[in-house]
Design a protein that fits this description.
With 137 residues, this protein is of the alpha+beta class. Helices cover 34% and strands 17% of the residues. The chain has four helices and four strands, in the order αβαβαββα. A two-stranded parallel sheet has the order 1-2. Helix 2 links the parallel strand 1 and strand 2. The chain is globular.
Length: 137
């Protein structure tokens, strides 16, 4: 997690991103069957975000653990994970292999918060983008 130079630093002297990476490193030391990471990239720059996802995924593969990450970085979720679950307001809107998640589905999921998704997503396609059978509690 690129923290070698902080080995002897006091925790209260670490930045938010450094503290976040320390927490993630601790997660990787746990002997768990399921790794849950809630917004593990929120305080990280793009390089560290990719490095962090790679470390989490590598650890999960190595130990046979299931890795579940909640992310707002749609592009990274789509690029790095084989399955994407779209949730909004406590409801699951879709749970699909990444190749089946369309720009229209993302636009519908993020309707009203389009700044959260890539400019490549066409928000005009949002109408009827989430099929009825994909919406469930």
């Amino acid at each position: 997690f690129d923290l070698q130079d902080k080995l002897y630093s006091r925790v209260d002297r670490l930045s938010g991103g450094e503290r976040q990476r320390v927490s993630l490193a601790r997660l990787l030391l746990a002997d768990a069957e399921v790794l849950l990471a809630d917004e593990p990239l929120s305080a990280l720059d793009p390089r560290l975000a990719r490095q962090t996802l790679e470390a989490l995924q590598s650890a999960a593969r190595r130990t046979g653990a299931t890795l579940i990450c909640s992310l707002h970085q749609v592009e990274l979720a789509h690029a790095q994970f084989p399955r994407v679950i779209g949730m909004r307001d406590g409801f699951k809107h879709f749970d699909l292999p990444r190749d089946e998640v369309t720009a229209a589905m993302l636009a519908a999921l993020y309707a009203g918060a389009e700044e959260e998704i890539s400019p490549a997503v066409d928000v005009d396609e949002a109408d009827a983008a989430l099929p009825g059978d994909a919406r469930c509690r």
